[in-house]
Design a protein that fits this description.
Length: 130
C-alpha cells in the first residue's frame, strides 16, 4: 500500500540530491549561503522542524518502501539529529560551519557526495514500493 508520505519522502530525497550536487559544483557558494542563513536564529527552529518532519515521514512511509528497515533507521537518525541541534547549540554549529569553510574545497566536495548518495537512496527506496 502506497503511503501518502512516500511522495514527500521522494521529494525530500531529490532535494537533498540537488542541494548536494550544488555543493559539489560550488562548495564555497553552498557554505557561504548556509552560514548566511544560519545567522538568522530562526534557522535553528527551521532545521529542527525539517528534521522532525522528514524523520517522521521516513518512519511512516518505510513499510511500503523497498528498504523499510533502512528508511526507519534513517528516519530515527533524523529525529535524533533534530534533538541534537538545540543541544549542540547555535554557537557550536556556527563554529563547525566556520571550520568547514576553512577546509579545502575537495573535502567539501567529498562530503557532498555522501549527500548525493543518501538523497538518491532515499528517493529510490521511497519511489520503489513493495
Amino acid at each position: 500500500m502506497l503511503s501518502m508520505m512516500q511522495p514527500i519522502v521522494v521529494i525530500f530525497g531529490v532535494l537533498i540530491c540537488i542541494a548536494s550536487t550544488a555543493g559539489f559544483i560550488a562548495p564555497e557558494w553552498l557554505l557561504r549561503n548556509v552560514r548566511h542563513a544560519w545567522q538568522n536564529r530562526q534557522a535553528m527552529t527551521l532545521a529542527v522542524l525539517t528534521r522532525v518532519f522528514l524523520g517522521l515521514a521516513l518512519i511512516i512511509a518505510a513499510p511500503g518502501t523497498l528498504y523499510p528497515g533502512a528508511l526507519r533507521i534513517i528516519g530515527s537518525l533524523g529525529l535524533v539529529a533534530a534533538i541534537g541541534l538545540p543541544v549542540i547549540g547555535w554557537t557550536r554549529i556556527d563554529n563547525l560551519l566556520a571550520w568547514f569553510q576553512r577546509r579545502p574545497a575537495w573535502l567539501m566536495r567529498l562530503w557532498t557526495l555522501f549527500g548525493v548518495a543518501a538523497g538518491g537512496f532515499i528517493a529510490m527506496a521511497a519511489a520503489t514500493h513493495q
